[in-house]
Structure prediction request, 324 residues.
Amino acid sequence: MAKVALITGVTGQDGSYLAELLLEKSYTVHGLLRRASSFNTGRIEHLYQDPHEPNPRLYLHYADLTDGSRLVTLLEGIHPDEVYNLAAQSHVRVSFDEPEYTGMATGLGSTRLLEAIRMIGLDCRYYQASSSEMFGASTPPQNEQTPFWPRSPYGISKVYSYWMTRNYREAYGMFAVNGILFNHESPRRGLTFVTRKITRAVAEIAAGKRDALYLGNLDAVRDWGYAPEYVAGMWAMLQHTEPGDYVLATGTAYTIRDFLGFAFSHVGLDWEKYVRFDERYLRPAEVDSLIGDASRAASILGWTPKVMTPELARIMVEADCAAV
Ligand code: NAP
Ligand code: GDD
Prediction:
């Protein structure tokens, strides 16, 4: 029997790559779709299957992580073998503007889902999209033993979801795991995250469509990997015999300045001529340095990343140049 998976956040960067991966592995995939007045399915357009066609394997359902009763009816109807909770208000800067909503979606959303699974007695495996933002101000390199010190409403909401996931594992014996993922990017990255904001600007500047890029703090250090490799790690966590928590990261460290250098040099431009400062992009509290140690995932799951940040910048610039 083909396995059945439910992905919340299927319309996001990771959800779209994960849906692709699971369809390749012959899963039937159900995705949760937020109702919006305009289409929000751009990242999964190429996977969409008309339900009138014979044997569709991708189904989309209207639901929202802030609506607990809907999650119950959805899970009861689908009976998935695996649930991947990727949905979240995922923007750190925005979480300072909307701390309450971020708590309701990014924090309590996981509880609604876990509780729905428990209430209907569903026997499934659960993946929680935890984040390196939970480490916040803790000194790098960070691994599964590093204390959490979140620095934003987003990071705090993720810490809450992390512990709820562990609690459902410990209290109810649920196969529930946390993937603690460091930053991962791709040509499908949202346009307001710094890497994609940069690569889109590079493409537009190279095409003569604009002449400036406004950014905030250029000194933060991040460990940027390639999103398709990270969703493979999510899947591997749910296939292991025992539930556990794993860091996924490249173990490399670059500043925003470094990324600017990689991205602009691909089109032969000097970033310092185009980048301007705008304080609107600063955060009330910053996470200065995230560098992950993924040795546990390497030794237990056999997961190792191949694409490092300079190559990632090339992939993203080329995709944006082609799109522009
Ligand atoms: P993303 O592109 O921002 O996608 C977020 C997804 O969540 C979208 O499908 C969005 O729907 C959905 N969503 C937001 N609020 C929702 C709500 N209230 N109810 C239902 N769905 C909702 O994020 P991503 O980069 O793919 O990341 C996936 C997950 O991993 C997130 O939980 C993120 O916090 C976490 N994470 C990401 C990274 C990273 O570097 N990318 C690292 C660590 C952890 P719409 O399309 O309708 O907006
Ligand atoms: N977004 C953004 N826009 N960030 C900027 C800008 C700008 O104009 N200028 C400088 N930055 C800096 C931010 O201050 C931060 O230090 C760094 O660039 C990265 O910002 P983002 O790309 O927004 O990502 P993030 O690290 O805050 O959060 C992402 O990674 C987390 C994992 O560590 C998100 O994907 C989170 O959802 C994820 O959990």
The two ends are 43 Å apart (CA to CA). The first helix runs from residue 13 to 24.
